[in-house]
Amino acid sequence: MRTVVAVYTGQGLADPLKKVFQELLPDVRLVNIIDDSLIGDVVKAGRVPPGVARRLVQYYRHGEELGADVILNTCSSVGEVADMARQLIGVPIVKIDQAMAAAAAARYDRIAVLATLPSTLEPTMRLIEKEARAAGRAVALVNGLAAGAFEALNGGRPEEHDRLILETAERVAGEADVIVLAQGSMARMESRLSEATGKPVLSSPRLGVEQVREVLERFAGLEGGEAGAR
C-alpha cells in the first residue's frame, strides 16, 4: 500500500481533502500531520518566519520517516518552503496548488487570485508567474484580496466570510478570464463563485490530489520498469 503524508498548517482542509483522497486514491494510506500554530505565526508575521520554515522541514522529515511515498504540502502560504525542502527530503513533495497554478497559467491570460490573507495571496501570485514563465507565457494577475474574510471566519462568522469572498469575486471578475482560489478551504465555494461571476473558477484540492496520483503512478511505472530489467 502506498503512503501519502499530508502536512497541514491548520485544521480546516483535512476533512474535505480526506474525501477527495477517498474518491481518487481509495487504496492509498493517508497520514495527516497538523500543526495549527503554523498559520497563526505566518499571519502574525505577514510572511513565513524562520521558525515556521524549520518546523515545516521537520514535519516533511517526519513524513519521510513514516514511510511516505509522496508528501503533500497543503498550504499555499508556505509553498516556497516546500520548494526549498525538496533539496533536503528524499521523497517527492507535491504542493497542493502547483497543478492549479500551472493550469491557470497555461490556459488564461488574465488571472484573478482570490485570497483572504496577503500571506497566501502573494506566494500564490508568485507561483502563477513562475508557472507562466516556465510555459513561455505572459499573464496579467489581478489582486483579489477579500479583506476581513479571514477574521470573520476566525470570529465564528462564516456567512460574513462567504459574503466578502463573493463580493470580491464579483469585483475582480470583469478584469479576469479566470478566478483562482488561493486557499484550498475556499474550494467549497467554487460552483457558487462561478455562477455569480460567469467565469471559470479553479481550486486546488482536487487538482493537487490528481497530481499526487500522477506522481505515484509515475514511480510505480519506474519501479515496474526496473523489475522488468532485472
From TrEMBL:
<protein>
    <submittedName>
        <fullName>Aspartate/glutamate racemase family protein</fullName>
    </submittedName>
</protein>
<comment type="similarity">
    <text>Belongs to the HyuE racemase family.</text>
</comment>
<dbReference type="InterPro" id="IPR053714">
    <property type="entry name" value="Iso_Racemase_Enz_sf"/>
</dbReference>
<dbReference type="Pfam" id="PF01177">
    <property type="entry name" value="Asp_Glu_race"/>
</dbReference>
<dbReference type="InterPro" id="IPR015942">
    <property type="entry name" value="Asp/Glu/hydantoin_racemase"/>
</dbReference>
<dbReference type="GO" id="GO:0047661">
    <property type="term" value="F:amino-acid racemase activity"/>
</dbReference>
